[in-house]
Amino acid sequence: MKKKVFSVMTAAALVFSLTACSTNAKTEEPETAAQSSASQTEAAGAETAESSGGASAEAGEKAASGETKAAGDTFTVGFDQDFPPMGFVGDDGEYTGFDLELAAEVADRLGLTFVPQPIAWDAKNMELESGNIDCIWNGFTMTGREDEYTWSEPYMENSQVVVVLEDSGIESTADLAGKIVEVQADSSAEAALKEMPELTESFAALQTTPDYNTAFMDLEMGSVDAIAMDVIVAGYQLQQRDGGFKILDDTLASEEYAIGFKKGNEALRDQVQTVLDEMASDGTMKEISEKWFGEDITTIGK
Known about the structure:
11 helices, globular, alpha/beta, 35% helix
């Protein structure tokens, strides 16, 4: 029985023991979704801090002039707080992760206050449409959702895989016949499996869970036989546990991560994209990726 080897997983053990990310961005902890929504009704003419770099300075001026659809002087990012290493609660109780560190740097360069807003993943569309958040940025799969949001350029590649107990006797997806498979509700893994009816119809059941921490507990207790999930998150989860799990070689789907904005919000998307391009050019994105994954696995500018 072999564990699937991915470069991100191989390097993950070297980096996930690092301390939670720190950024120069001002960080404001949200208290409630209602307060987040209320803050977004403020006038968008608040002064913004002077930003560095020609491209980000121009984007910051647009934010100050009200051309952005971000609320006031804040940049509120919706994320799943149980989705490490992209976004999660660190040992110090603070929100951290690769995506959140990128987002905080973007906010800082735009002269906006970064607000990480945890959301229920199956309620993400409602949060975005209601204005509680400015974007969805948390290992958010663009593939298959291209027409549902206004997207940034993809910044990372990902795939959907299956995790099982090491001694389960399950060696491939064909062995999942008659087994109970669990996925996060409204996740890319769930969408990928729904595109594979011949496979899913062989399952004893395909059930959903709110988050993958719960899924791993279900797998350990034997209430499910397998978990379908993002390979990046699977790698992190396996590194945090004391063995006993493996990733099947079979890949369910290949995809790309991007930032999802409310449909039609090109103004904010363009400002964020300008800063991301700048971060890729000046090496900041590479540095953050190496911190979390041990190598640069981002795709912007490549």
